Amino acid sequence: MSKEGDFDAVRKDIEAILKQKGYDDGHIGPVLVRLAWHASGTYCKDTDTGGSNGAGMRYEKEGGDPANAGLQHARVFVEPIKRKYPWITYSDLWTLAGVVAIRSMGGPDIPWKAGRSDFDDDSLLPPRGRLPDGSQAQDHLRHIFYRMGFNDQEIVALSGAHNLGRCHADRSGFEGAWVNNPTRFSNQYYKLLLKLKWQKKDLNREGAPWQWVATTPGMDEDDEPLMMLPTDYSLTQDAEFKKWVEKYAEDQDLFFDHFSKVFAKLVELGVYRDEDGVARFNNLTKGKYESAPPKSLTPGAPERRPAQVTHISTKARL
Ligand code: HEM
Questions:
Q1: What is the pLDDT of residues 125-157, one digit of tens each?
Q2: Which of 36, 58, 73, 141 is 20 to 30 A removed from 96 (C-alpha atoms)?
Q3: Domains of the chain, with CATH numbers?
């Protein structure tokens, strides 16, 4: 039986499952990073709704959002860890998995604190449509990320997560990887944005009408070209954004430092802590640690009905 609160043991077990031969580029790290981000990126600072509490993707209302397509794989990958450590909340597990994955792929250490709670039904979940749409451009990025409380520099730093992983035609409609080595965290994304000759490629898919593609000098003709989303490319078409793209392309240490800070901020969205760093579920009560029961070990549709929650704190409501 695992020791309650032993997050170091959880970290080790997350690390141990990251390399998976049959999946994508042999690594589940990128999709875990995307899970942590989508679990947090629903936050709205004006209404104080959404954010990394809740683990709302367990419910159809959020998990079935087309913006979250593909993340059922990430959730199922970490399910055996939830089984082994049933006391951990999904919202802590999903955010911690992203942080551990980034470090393990050569990225920076990211400060992470426990204490997020799982919702026991879908009533507190934010509406769909709060995550960014890759087919748009800089105005849209500002609209979405300002709502979460980020500034221009932070938007560019966060976008650098696209050093990792790939797009899947059956998930987002876009296809391909941003960099040549998509399981190694670096500042390559910014360098390629500035250096390569990007060309528009029609995809003619709903939600993903076209994307940018380019090849690097060492590539063969039948190699899959590198890609950029319209939103990625728009960072070079805006003076304030481009300034940061250039800085991060030149200075990987600066990028790692800023990325660590901004990712830590991302996974804290909607989480309140007292002066000792202990999470409060709202401003009135010190929330208890509400951990939802384990789910299925195979990918499937998210639940429509509320799940039972253990360690229920009836006062712990937003
Ligand atoms: C700036 C606005 C953003 C847009 C429009 C966007 C859009 C996308 C899209 C369309 C995909 C492909 C999904 C698929 O087909 O599997 C993707 C993948 C990914 N995104 Fe973003 N994203 C954004 C920001 C972020 C941020 C802030 C992070 C993390 C800090 C992030 C991390 C990732 C990762 C790691 C993947 C690869 C997932 C995989 O390999 O399965 N993205 N993103």
A1: 999 999 999 999 999 999 999 999 999 999 999
A2: 141
A3: 7-130+271-280 (1.10.520.10), 138-264 (1.10.420.10)
